[in-house]
Structure formats: C-alpha cells, structure tokens
Amino acid sequence: MKRLTMKFGGTSVGSPEALEKVVGIVSREIAQGNQVAVVVSAMSGVTDMLLKSVKAAIAGDKWGYKSLSNDIRDKHEDAIHQHIAPSERRNAVLSDIHTMLQHQQELCEAINILEEATPRISDAVVSLGERMSARMVAAILEERGIRSLAFDAGLFVVTNAQYQNAEPLWDITEQRIREKLTPVLEAGITPVITGFIGATPDGSVTTLGRGGSDFSGAIFAANLDSDELIIWTDVDGVMTTDPRVDKRARVLPYVSYAEVGELAFYGAKVLHPKTVQPIINKAIPMRVRNTFNPDHPGTLIGAEMETDPNIIKAVTSIRSVSMLTVSGKGMLGVPGIAGRTFLATAKAGASILMISQSSSEQSFCFTIPDDKAPQVKHAVESELAAEIARQDVDSVDVWQDIIIITVVGAGMRHRPGVAGRVFTTLGNHQVNVLAIAQGSSECSISFVIAEKDMALAVRCLHDLALETFNGKA
Ligand code: ASP
Ligand code: MG
C-alpha cells in the first residue's frame, strides 16, 4: 500500500473532459489499494475571474462582478451536470456552489461600498475558487463510487496574516494535519483539499500567493508522510527549455530538488518556487505529470544530484525585469553601501532576483521586476543621498529591456569548464553579457543580456542542454 498526495492544477479540473481524466487517475490508485489525498486548484480561469470581480467592485461596476459570478456558476454547473446524475448529491453540491457565489457577491457589495479592497477581503473572495472546486471534485468522486470528502485547507494550514502571500506556521500545521487529516485517509476516505489557501490562527482565510496550490500539495505530502507527491498538470513534465521559445524542448526524466527550485525561481512556469521546501527534509519524491497524457511517466524530482560537470540540464529566462547599477569610485572599501541599498529595495517592496558586483568594487548591480524600478531607484537615491552629494557614489542607473537567463545543472558550480562553455557559446553568437551571478543555490549560473538577444541566447545554450539530453556532452 502506498500513500500518495496528488495535486491537480486548474486545467486538470477545468472542464468536464479533464475531470473524467482525474476520476480515472484517482480510481486507478484506489483500485490498487493505495491511499490518495487530493489537493485541487480552482477551475482554470476562475482565480483570475474572482480577482477581476474584486476590481470591478472597487470601480463600482456592479454588473461586472455579477456577470463574472454568473460565468463562474455556469462553469461549475456545466461540469456538475455532466458528471453527477440528478440526485440529492447533485442538489447538495449545486447548493454549495450557489452559497459560495452568494458570498462572493456580498463581499463584492461591501467592496463596492467601501470603494477599496483590503488584501484580507480580496483573499476571502479569491479563496472561493478552490473552495468550489474541492466540493465539486469530491462530489464527482463520490458519484463514481470513491468515498470522498471536501476540506477547506484553512482547517489544517495555519499561516501568518500576510494576506495574498501567507507563510505557513509549520509546527501547528503539522500537528493539525496529523491529528485531523491522517485519520481520514486511514479510514479509507479520499480527502479533496483546497490548494492555495490557509487561515490565520484566528481563522481568517489567507492565500499562499498565485500558483500556490503546488506549495499546498507539498505541505500535505510532507505532513501526511506521503510516499510520493504528484503534481498533475497539462504538460508532460519539466522541460529542457520553454517550448514556446525553442520547439526542440524535451521532457527531463529527472531533476533534483535544488535544480527544480532554481528553474522555478528563474522563470520556468511549471512549479511554484516554494514547492520543494516542505518535502526536501523528508526526501519525499515528487513527480510532475500530465493529466491529459497519464501514461507518460513525467519528470521525477528527488534529492540525488547528478554532479557531472558536463551536465547542463535546462535553460530558462525571465522577462519584465530591470537592472539597477550603483556605481562610484568612492565606494571602494566603504562598508554598508550594498547593504543599505538592498534594505531600501526591500522597503520599496521589490524582491531582488539576482545580484552581481565587479571585483574592483566600483559598481554593483541587481535585478528587480520592471514595475518596481522607478520606486526602487527613488528609494536607493534617497538612501544614498549623502554619498551621492559627496560623489562617492556617481549614479544609480536603471537598465530596461534586459532579461535574465539561467542555465541549470548541478555540476556546474566549482567547475569552471561549464561556465566557460556557456560564455564561449554566447560569445560565438555575439551575445553581449551585461552581468553575471550565481544562482541562489549551487547549481545554476544566471546572467543578464539585452532582451533582443533572448531567442538567440536561449537557443544556443539549449543546444548544450540537448547535447546532455542526448548523452553526447
Ligand atoms: N488558483 C490559484 C491561482 O490561479 C492557485 C493555483 O492554481 O495554484 O493562482
Ligand atoms: Mg500552477
């Protein structure tokens, strides 16, 4: 008997056809005597629609949030009608959906009156997407003879009050899952739990950030002591690069936790960057698999690192970033300038994706999301006003139209050969590198180039990853 945690993303629960696949995948495991905990996203598009309804309410557009509410209702009703015969069960789940949407409209009315939405009330609205899909999926499984119950994750995942991007409080979360959820599995019931959401200790709903239901899946897998976490999505696995940039992209059979963390942090959309956090210590294996191609084994993600220095696994890129440089001859040996700059950046609400410094200490640079660049420049200039007046710091400059490219492979740190190959390849293709840094863990190199060079750079580096893939490196 195996204990599995299966997380199904938005497209996997987003249509009647997809839900049929979900039933197939879950029943196959149950038939083999395995225990399955299911974690679900909202139906695809629903989170965005709920966020739009909040915006409409702020703008006083009553018709807007009501019509969004109707569209969300239709989407769920359609799936329920196709999967559940007219019965008590069907009526009960429809009535749950209607109650939730009633609640959405009431919250939107309140927002409409106040003409603003706090992060807290916004979380109350967007969390409804998962709360509806969990009820729907549990009812559909029941209809197909699988004993199942829907749960709101707020019962188990206790978080701080940082609405829209809440952090779990680990000890109490672990205790709640052990005490309240493990017995459900042991009783032979398949729980269907909302991804993406939690609750503060006093019970108000929080969300874990966009795309956070992968993270939820990992939280449950870790604390249920699952044998495996499976992230069911709409692609075959983690790929060597984004297939929209290079069609030759291949599915990687194996990547390590560290590598996948790096890939997710640097722009690969397949997993939420925090996903591996809860399962690393317990070394729970994770698989990314395709709901629409369930016979494909997907990508296995685990603790073991392949440290062959020739291995280049994957190439990712992030757009919509700007680079700030702080430069000046008077910075040499002056402690604290970088520290104060980064603190000012954090206070301006921007997270730094990459940092690099020239060895002469005459300048350093870091990248932040585009939309924060003006605030950060302003914040850094005011923080360093005295140094700028003394001309110790010459300028704080913003570079736009740049991107970050990250090359991932566990063996590349400490092995100059890989970096050499990467930069020689770029040089051969006349791609100019503006800044270089190591990734946040030990298995990647990131660098900044002009946005116009992106396709060329990704393709020529992807050639190196494909050589590895084909065993020719
Ligand atoms: N439904 C949420 C979102 O769209 C969470 C998730 O699907 O992971 O961001
Ligand atoms: Mg996702």
Description of the structure:
This protein has 473 residues and is α/β, with parallel strands linked by helices. It has helices at 16-31, 46-58, 62-83, 88-114, 119-143, 170-186, 213-223, 257-265, 277-280, 337-347, 373-383, 385-389, 416-428, 454-469; strands at 3-8, 35-40, 148-151, 190-194, 197-199, 205-207, 228-233, 254-256, 286-290, 299-302, 314-327, 354-357, 363-369, 395-408, 433-438, 444-450. It has 2 domains: 3-234, Acetylglutamate kinase-like (Carbamate kinase, 3-Layer(aba) Sandwich), CATH 3.40.1160; 314-472, 2-Layer Sandwich (VC0802-like), CATH 3.30.2130. β1, α1 and β2 (35-40) form a beta-alpha-beta unit. α2 packs antiparallel against α3 (62-83) and α2 (46-58) runs parallel beside α4. The radius of gyration is 24 Å and the shape is globular. The strands form 3 sheets. Strands 3-4-2-1-7-9-10-8 form an 8-stranded mixed β-sheet, with helices on both faces. A 6-stranded antiparallel β-sheet has the order 12-13-11-14-16-15. A two-stranded antiparallel sheet has the order 5-6. The model has no long low-confidence stretch (mean pLDDT 94). The chain is 42% helix and 21% strand. The structure holds aspartic acid and magnesium ion. Magnesium ion is lined by residues 9, 211, 214. The site of aspartic acid has 12 residues, from loops.
